[in-house]
Specification:
With about 325 residues, this protein is mainly alpha-helical. The protein is about 80% helix and about 0% strand. The protein has 19 helices and no strands. It starts with a helix and ends with a helix.
Amino acid sequence: ALDGAREHHAESEFVAQFQGRAALLDRDPEAAREAFARAHEIDQGDSRNLAALAECHYALRELPKALEAAHQSLLRDCALPAANAWMARCCAQFHRRDAGHYARAAVALAPNGWLAHLALGEALIAGREMGEARREIDLAASLSAERPDVVVARAIVQSICGEEASAAEQLEQTLADPGALTPIAHYEAYQALCRILFGGQIFDAAMEQGRRLLEHFPDDAWAMQYAVAAECEHLIQQGSRLEPEALAALGERYERALEANEAQAWIAADYLSYLERLGGTEAAHVAVARLREKFAESGALVFLHGRLLRHADRGEEAAQVMLEALVR
């Protein structure tokens, strides 16, 4: 029926909107994105189409595009609840402080809407206001308990509040039906479960979940560093020492993860620590020299190099490198 309507009313905004909503119900955010893009082309002043596009981009983890669509929707109608809610959810993903502003606007405009309360709950999670976050997520659940993103958000709150076992059970049940999940809900469920397992030092299971996460999201920077870190912790827990060939292969993976994460200091520090424990101090020294050459602008790597030298009782060299780090 929808195909026939589209054939006979190709320029109908309503038909494109209806197709988009039908695709979302069918758990096909890509088809929904195409339909709402057509609706937007037909009427570029309709803020609802842009809010719906934000929803589709968000579901597909196209977060910069989701943020821009939500922003454009607000420019056309700042009182649209969905525009405020999707703006809030995007801002929370980027750890922006104004996430709470948009979320509270959404709740004021749609006090009985699950999406508004979920958006506020996520903004509060990002701000680590866990008591209020739990209340808002519970409200969202009371309005739409079966939505996977609500279930995942509730599990995240539980895990932060020390209820790891209950959170892990909910996440495992959610992941058992991947067809019901949008890409972002799928990713966040895996990420939350991975964090619970890693924090609980259940490194064999953490390593397995990290492998699964990478299978689904092979280019994700967080997944890349998590998977190799979980493997290192598992090896250390087993009392392993790696031969040079195995150590080199692990190092290649860790350095790819480091590059994907723009040489963040904490990832580099973890990597060098794991090398010391799995392959010895010399392996870490060789690696940090290579990393300093590769990421020449990183002052953090200079500091980490100095710390390694100090641990090796090479005090004079350590002092020189630390001075170099200070002037960066």
